[in-house]
Amino acid sequence: MGAHAHKLEIFRGLIKFKSNIQKIWGVLILLSIITAIEVALGIIKPEWSMKMVLRMKILNWIFIILTIVKAYYITWDFMHMRDEVSSLRRVVVWTGVFLIIYLIFILLQEGVYVEEVYKEGYIKRDF
Amino acid sequence: MDTTTVVSTGTEGKTWGGGNEPLKASYGKMMMWFFIVSDALTFSGFLAAYGFSRFKFMDTWPIADEVFTHVPFFHGNYPMYYVAFMTFVLIMSSVTMVLAVDAGHQMKKAKVTWYMFFTVIGGIIFLGSQAWEWGTFIKGDFGAVQTNGGNILQFVDTDGQRVALGDFVVAEHKERIQDQRKLGIWYTGESSALPSYTIEEVLHGLEQNEHVLVRTQTINKHGHKTVLSRAESIKQIKDNGKRVVEGANLEVNEYGSPLFADFFFFITGFHGFHVLSGVVINIIIFFNVILGTYERRKNYEMVEKVGLYWHFVDLVWVFVFTFFYLV
């Protein structure tokens, strides 16, 4: 069954699984570890991660990056994106990623502006 | 009579000879992917709008782990644990789904049946947890006061621990009737039930209890909400206090900005609706598997297509989890 062949490597070949089922469990362990790290960081909130980098706390950047890592493994291994042809992968991922980044940029930019108006304009909010 | 004329075009097997699958995916699978792309954009619309509102009220937005602190059957302060559990349940049901797809490829009917069953159970546990989460959120636990300007004032003791209204306010006997449209001006009325206390009683209770202070929504430079001094606390409630807020609804909530609850209901609600439809579709597929539909069709691709949708629901939750509960 050539159509059902699975690519069994993750981390660019660092970890190779023997079967598809083994890979599924491997990815589950990876996702659980990442979630555990997120929750632990969210509860501890270490002092060093409170510094602002590019207008956001380091901790929040870590959360966002870990989330994208999780999204990658869900899409690539659970949704079998790894086994699809590259053109299908690009049609789905590039379209989505481009539009989403565009949308986020516009809305957050506008949000920052409105906050500035609230803060520095002559709008009274504390009454 | 039943001779069908088939004209051979001589292009069989060539690019335009028909029977080709663009992107090497079947029609159904490709369309599921395209649906997922558009649905992903809908969810990013919601989450980006949440980001917009949050950036707009950057220094007064509620802190999520002060809001979601409950675990069923346990008392006390456990931020995030329950949502983490929900995330794990959803990931786990994704795993059983992908195992069902894998078993389908190998045409193992019994295995597909069991894995589909576990996937449905996982979905139901998640939905139940979300219903509980909504219930807790709507009910609220400490109560607060809304000011004329629409800001929320909460109460803490001198150690900074939250104090519930019931702990220091005494309800007096009163004859206050709910303001209904038919009793007042035709366009006004109170949408929610009357709170347990009036604003005067809260002020009275605050004046009586010297260890109670008011906490505003403003986040100070240490990342905590600002606690006012005793004199300022009384002044705020006396001058600006307008109504007592208990719990959350679309109009007002005791956690802070009304938009916080609005987005909570809309985003987790929209996601929960996806989970619900996913569970329903999974149940349909589950019965189809039992009835042997795919066995007769000699392929289980339907399980795979539904699986794509189910994983997508999981994928969205990963983002909701991050942007609503963690960041």
Topology-level CATH name of the largest domain in chain B = Four Helix Bundle (Hemerythrin (Met), subunit A)
- Strand residues, percent of chain B: 5-15%
The low-confidence runs of chain B, each spanning 5 or more residues with pLDDT under 50, are none
| CATH architectural grouping of the largest domain in chain B | Up-down Bundle
Give me the number of helical elements of chain A.
Answer: 3
Give the helix level of chain A as a range of percent.
55-70%
Broad structural category of chain B: alpha+beta
Largest interface here, residues on each chain? Answer: A-B, 54 and 60 residues
Number of domains of chain B: 2
* SSE ordering of chain B: HHHHEEHHEEHEHHH
Structural class of chain A: mainly alpha
Q: Please give the domain count of chain A.
A: 2
What count of helical segments of chain B does DSSP give?
Answer: 10
Instruction: Show unreliable segments of chain A.
Output: none
Please report the distance between the alpha carbons of the first and last residues of chain B. Answer: 71 Å
Sketch the topology of chain A as an H/E string, one letter per element. Answer: EEHEEHH
Distance between the termini of chain A: 70 Å
Number of strands of chain B: 5
The averaged pLDDT of chain B comes out at: 90
What's the SSE blueprint?
The complex is a heterodimer of chains A (127) and B (327).
Chain A: E1 9-10, E2 15-16, H1 20-44, E3 52-53, E4 56-57, H2 58-78, H3 86-120
Antiparallel strand pairs in A: 1-2, 3-4
Helix pairs in contact in A: 1-2
Chain B: H1 27-56, H2 64-67, H3 81-105, H4 109-139, E1 144-147, E2 152-157, H5 165-168, H6 199-208, E3 212-219, E4 225-227, H7 230-240, E5 241-245, H8 258-291, H9 293-297, H10 301-326
Helix pairs in contact in B: 1-8, 1-10, 3-4, 3-10, 4-8, 6-7, 8-10
Word description of this protein:
The complex is a heterodimer of chains A (127) and B (327). With 127 residues, chain A is mainly alpha-helical. Chain A folds into two domains: 1-83; 85-127. Helix content of chain A is 64%, strand content 6%. Chain A contains three helices and four strands, in the order E-E-H-E-E-H-H. A two-stranded antiparallel ribbon of chain A has the order 1-2. In chain A, strands 3-4 form a two-stranded antiparallel sheet. In chain A, helix 1 packs antiparallel against helix 2 (58-78). By secondary structure, chain B is of the alpha+beta class. Chain B folds into two domains: 47-140 and 260-326, Cytochrome c oxidase, subunit III, four-helix bundle (Four Helix Bundle (Hemerythrin (Met), subunit A)); 144-173 and 192-246, no CATH class. Helices cover 55% and strands 8% of the residues of chain B. Chain B has a five-stranded antiparallel sheet. In chain B, a hairpin with a 5-residue loop joins strand 3 (212-219) and strand 4. In chain B, helix 1 (27-56) runs antiparallel to helix 8 (258-291) and helix 1 runs parallel beside helix 10 (301-326). The longest helix of chain B has 34 residues, at 258-291. The termini of chain B are far apart. The model of chain B has no long low-confidence stretch (mean pLDDT 90). Classes of the chains: A mainly alpha (127), B alpha+beta (327). At the A-B interface, helix 1, helix 2 and helix 3 of A face helix 1, helix 3 and helix 10 of B.
